[in-house]
Amino acid sequence: MATLDQTDKHLLNLLQENARFTTKQLALKLSLSPTAIYERIKKLERQNYINRYVALVNPRKIQKDFVAFVMIQLKEHTQASIAAFESEIALIPEIVACFHVSGTYDYLIKVNLDEMSSFRNFMVEKLTKIPHISNTQSAFSIKEVFNHTALKL
Amino acid sequence: MATLDQTDKHLLNLLQENARFTTKQLALKLSLSPTAIYERIKKLERQNYINRYVALVNPRKIQKDFVAFVMIQLKEHTQASIAAFESEIALIPEIVACFHVSGTYDYLIKVNLDEMSSFRNFMVEKLTKIPHISNTQSAFSIKEVFNHTALKL
DNA sequence: ACAGATATAGAATAATATTCTAAATTTACA
DNA sequence: TGTAAATTTAGAATATTATTCTATATCTGT
After folding, report:
1. B71: nearest CA partner in chain A
2. Where is the HTH asnC-type domain (chains A, B) (predicted)?
3. B66-101: per-residue pLDDT in tens?
């Protein structure tokens, strides 16, 4: 089924940059009719190339531009321990991403807060309240050089 | 200027989950008129609470669901070295995120590839071809537990 | 080269975004 | 606390876009 041609790839690139392009605008860029663009996008959605459309909010404007990365080691690596940890972590809204990773540490999480002082509170009151955690190591973002949502095709 | 009320926050939450909600749908959810919703969204855009709207593409479907995190140490930390490194890194499309961080390592980058074998190629042919790098440490994503674009208000 | 399937263009329609106006609500401050 | 100005809202009117439909063109596999 369905291998993407250059037009599809171009479309995905454009929609990843700006999901508000109209079919008319896209039609102009890709030298096709709005209908052709429309049908292609619908197909990309049906086939799950496009998962969803979202608004990106400015973290600075809502006082969530202090970013920390925390590497986490679990005490044990049983199925139960992993499942418990992952479901607890999902309940903490400050944690915006969580990856189970290879290496010395088991998890890498990304945390968005307003400032450093909140990080202390986050660690003491939330993260380390989770059982299963053995130890952690944190790194703070000094500067976000870039952080794309788009995957170039 | 402009402090967000509960309606604004609710709106931002909804649009971060699904940017395709129509003003009519949002009006129903928030018990307002479509015009009121429309004006509020336009204001949030004008005031840069909303940066942009994007389509999220399924990494698995486009063979970019192998994820690695690489911590990078620079040889020197001069302004010139930092600037050079950051501009070089920005040219490598596999690197989807780059943060200047505190700690032993200077940078944390996220890389999206198709599979492990490509990672070797990425390291040998691309990343370590960049001068200024002293050493690196990599961790591979075993599982993406979650990775939100939304910041809860 | 041909039949079936798929993609496209253009017209028609439906739905939504956008603008406009007046009323309601909130805000600032006398 | 009262009042004028500013902001927000609702509803109607309009403009734009999404969506459907039909016929034609293009592509695919044999």
Report:
1. A139
2. 4-67
3. 999 999 999 999 999 999 999 999 999 999 999 999
Our measurement of CA B36 to C1' C27, in angstroms, reads 19
Which portions of chain A are predicted below pLDDT 50? none
**Pair A70, A111: CB distance under 8 Å:** yes
Amino acid at B63: Q
Place of tokens 């418990």: A84
Q: Are A151 and B97 an interchain contact pair (Cβ–Cβ within 8 Å)?
A: no
Q: Which residues contact A43 (CB under 8 A, 6 or more apart)?
A: A2
**What mean pLDDT do residues B23-46 have?**
98
Helix, strand, coil percentages in chain B from 3-state DSSP, rounded to 5: 40, 30, 30
Q: Considering the domain B66-140, what is its CATH architecture? A: 2-Layer Sandwich (3.30)
Q: Which residue is nearest to nucleotide C9 (CA to C1')?
A: A33
One of 2.40.50, 1.10.10, 1.10.3470, 2.50.20 is the CATH number of A6-46, namely 1.10.10
Is the C-alpha dihedral spanning B18, B19, B24, B27 positive or negative? positive
Q: What is the pTM of this model?
A: 0.93
Could B90 and A145 be called an inter-chain contact, meaning their C-beta atoms sit closer than 8 Å?
yes
pLDDT of residue B50: 97
Closest Cβ–Cβ partner in B47, B53, B96 for A55: B53
